[in-house]
TrEMBL record:
Name used for this protein in its record: FAD-dependent urate hydroxylase
Pathway: Purine metabolism; urate degradation
Protein encoded by which gene: hpxO
Taxonomic lineage of the native organism: Bacteria, Pseudomonadati, Pseudomonadota, Gammaproteobacteria, Oceanospirillales
Domain FAD-binding as annotated: residue spans: 2-341
Reactions that this protein is recorded to catalyse: urate + NADH + O2 + H(+) = 5-hydroxyisourate + NAD(+) + H2O
Keyword NAD found: yes
Length: 388
């Protein structure tokens, strides 16, 4: 039994790990010749960490996960604390800690864990053909590969998704721009063991500790799509957007290296119910492209992989068994991922001032927050995963 895995990102590598646990051979194909992650880091919440443990890659999280023990919101203008609390009750409730990690390091270590020389890079898929006996992938370099089934983990711009759905999906602009990168930990900016977020004016500045004494930072600003900005103006742009904001925000802006800072227009895709067509399954961003507003993008891909492996454990390794396993995967995942995409979209709108009255009401709630409500929301999301 052989699977073709399209994409060597977090979704593709975790899918390969899950299938390998079931004794299924995997050939992995990656479009680019060298992995260049979009985004400096990502938050792998406890559900994602549990998935990495389950897949045999928990040591990667131990090595890369930052010491995020507390959480705080500050008024962006005055710098005053709106709420601050320990994440220990969350860890106690769900049985695992959250791990903010460097995206590049995570992908690199997952690839090394599998075997870098076992992945075929520079293989951009153009089309797929299915027969009664399996699937064949055709790549833009003129080569092709065949297997019993395919897992398409080829990202938000998936080339395979249209063949599964039967129509082309449009990405939806979420009405804000995100800048993100890494800086050395500086406690004049924020405590080194805390997820700290400054909010105001529908904007957000957030700092998370990752391994090796670094902060992952991001800035969010509601802006029109297609605004022309580049690295040469990055510091001036952020200084302008956050004029009058608190001293830690100004310190962070001055610490940024424009050459290693990403500027991304944030999008998602309207959720869809079809994740599988016969012997092809969508996984990760190809299946559920979301905004990063609840930190579940990477976690969702890891959950997909775990469920995929569980489904293959329930069926014989025959062609009919493959079809049954993939349909079970679709049934298990489609409602969960739809809920996460829509939950992130709702949080996105509140955070970024789509209705400023609603956003101001959220700011007022934060000033009264003890941490209990935020932890309850995080707990619900985490325990909704397959390894609760």
């Amino acid at each position: 039994m052989k699977a073709l895995i399209i994409g060597a990102g977090i979704g593709g590598m975790s899918a390969a790990a899950a299938l390998k646990q079931q004794g299924i051979e995997c050939d992995i194909f990656e479009a680019v010749k060298e992995i260049r992650p979009v985004g400096a880091a990502l938050s792998i919440w406890s559900n994602g960490v549990k998935c990495m443990n389950h897949l045999g890659m928990g040591s990667i999280m131990d090595a890369l996960g930052g010491p995020m023990h507390n959480m705080a919101y500050h008024d962006g203008i005055t710098g005053s604390v709106m709420t601050q609390f320990s994440l220990a009750p969350l860890v106690d409730a769900v049985g695992e800690r959250p791990c903010p990690v460097s995206r590049a390091d995570l992908q690199s270590q997952m690839i090394d864990w599998w075997g870098r020389d076992l992945i075929q890079f520079g293989k951009r898929i153009e089309r797929v053909e299915q027969t009664d006996n399996g699937v064949t992938a055709f790549f833009d370099d003129g080569t092709q590969a065949s297997g019993d089934f395919m897992i398409a983990a080829d990202g938000t711009h998936s080339a395979v998704r249209t063949q599964v759905l039967g129509y082309h999906t449009e990405r939806r602009y979420a009405d804000y721009v995100n800048w993100n990168g890494l800086v050395d930990i500086d406690e004049d900016i924020a405590p080194g063991d805390q997820w700290t977020t400054f909010v105001g004016e529908g904007k957000r500045v957030s700092i998370m500790p990752i391994a090796e004494g670094r902060f992952y930072f991001f800035f969010d600003v509601p802006l029109p799509k297609g605004l022309k900005e580049d690295r040469s103006t990055l510091i001036d742009d952020l200084t302008d957007y956050f004029s009058g904001w608190a001293a830690p925000v100004q310190t962070l802006i001055k610490a940024i290296n424009p050459e290693t800072t990403n500027r991304i227009e944030i999008h998602d895709i309207e959720p869809f119910d079809t994740l599988v067509k016969d012997k092809i399954a969508l996984l990760g961003d190809a299946a559920h492209s979301t905004t990063p507003d609840i930190g579940q993008g990477g976690c969702s891909a890891l959950e997909d992989a775990v469920v995929l492996g569980q489904c293959f454990a329930h069926h014989e390794y025959t062609l009919s068994g493959v079809t049954a396993a993939l349909k079970e995967y679709e049934a298990e995942r489609r409602f969960r991922v739809k809920d996460l995409v829509l939950k992130a979209r709702k949080r996105c709108d509140v955070t970024h001032g789509k209705d400023m009255a609603e956003t101001e009401a959220w700011y007022d709630e934060l000033k009264k927050e003890t941490g209990e409500n935020i932890i309850a929301g995080l707990r619900t999301t985490i325990l909704g995963g397959p390894l609760a």
